[in-house]
Amino acid sequence: MEVTSKLVNSANAIAEAKIDAKSIEERVNKLAQKAAKQVKVDGFRQGKVPVAVVLKRYGKELEGDAKQELFKEAIDKALNELGKKPDELLGDPGFSKFEENENGIDAELELSFKPTIDVSGYEEAISEYATPRVTKKEIEAKIEEFLTMIAPLEKIEKDVLEKGDFAKFDFEGFVDGVAFEGGKAEGFVLEIGSNQFIPGFEDGMVGLKVGEEKDINVKFPAEYQAPNLAGKDAIFKVKLHEIQGKVVAKELDDETIKKMMPGEEDASKEKLEERLKTQIREDKFQKLLNEELKPKFVDAVVEKINFDLPKSIVEQEIDFQFRNAWNGFSAEDMAKFREDKDALTAKRESYRADAEKSVKLTFIVDELAKVRNVVVSDQEVVQAIYFEAYRYGVDPKAHLEDYRNRGVLPAVKMALIEEKLFNDLFSKNKKEEKGE
């Protein structure tokens, strides 16, 4: 086996591997001899199976294994020749050439490595910004929002149910005339217009009078979580018992202030307003960061910091973006791409610029995180996933296991590092706060 390698640039290399037929045959025989001691074949004692029998029965698989081993050795030789370690290799090597005949295999392998990145001067891309101002009116609105949230529901005298009202009613759902499990409740309370129920249900209740009964026709979404109901037409029989509304307190009392400041000693309206002011300012900063500061910084550093991109990672990102976009294509486009390979290749290629920017930014963020000592622990990753699970009302342990099974925990960690990095980048670059 002959292997020669050369660097294309600092992040990519080409390894030419010539594997002669004799080397392949010898490796196949070696694997067959090893397999002969382990496989079970009727008519032979285990460990006494003739190599010829193994070759006849498993020759194709053994040949594949032999080639795989030889290419692995070729890659190891190339890495050694290039002065690279195996853990510097990124992604799976790809073939830019593969020719096989009776004399053996002539191939070219594309190898990619983590690029060397110089992020010096990145500070110039960090925009200065004014600390977001918080008004008294915004603090009062936040208090009113909380008071509305905790306000008790009471029966209100009203003729007709409208959006924004709370309905107390009974319902039972039927598909093909048969009641389905989980589709019945009595005395259920629902805010009309909150979109808690499937599309069309709450709109169908608008206009109902107390004591009135009605059949509401709806269609379950195609992606509904219960497979037996997904995409099905259904009828809900409803009866409205009462129209309710929230009775919102006009001002804060001591008990409510304590509810809004759990664990706070000497809770007071002044302390509450100061805490809300900090929260509102942080919310405004996050909005400013995500909509203005971060995009501007990203464009600047991607333009300013240049380095060679590992080809294998770029190709993976192109495939990822193309797969994500596939379901958004029209049926006509899908059919065209299945039949026309040139059109498919051209469409995939259209994602290259965005993929290169995404890969470039990922490496820049990784390097900046090291420069600024920004780290995210595994515990922080778990906490973030648990928090997401609680927000969506799913089992946190199952949610974490799903992420682990799909192999996306590193991506979650990278997203958290990026979030923490950008907060760190801009937290010390604000102008003096103006009076409020």
Automatic annotation (TrEMBL):
Residues 164-246 form the PPIase FKBP-type domain. Keywords: Cell cycle, Cell division, Chaperone, Cytoplasm, Isomerase, Rotamase. It is an enzyme of class 5 (isomerase). It catalyses: [protein]-peptidylproline (omega=180) = [protein]-peptidylproline (omega=0). Pfam families: FKBP_C, Trigger_C, Trigger_N. It is found in: Cytoplasm. Gene3D superfamilies: 3.10.50.40, Trigger factor ribosome-binding domain (3.30.70.1050), Trigger factor, C-terminal domain (1.10.3120.10). One of its GO terms (cellular component) is cytoplasm. Its EC number is 5.2.1.8. GO terms for molecular function: peptidyl-prolyl cis-trans isomerase activity. GO terms for biological process: cell division; protein folding; protein transport. NCBIfam families: tig (TIGR00115). Involved in protein export. Acts as a chaperone by maintaining the newly synthesized protein in an open conformation. Functions as a peptidyl-prolyl cis-trans isomerase. Belongs to the FKBP-type PPIase family. Tig subfamily. Consists of 3 domains; the N-terminus binds the ribosome, the middle domain has PPIase activity, while the C-terminus has intrinsic chaperone activity on its own. This is Trigger factor.
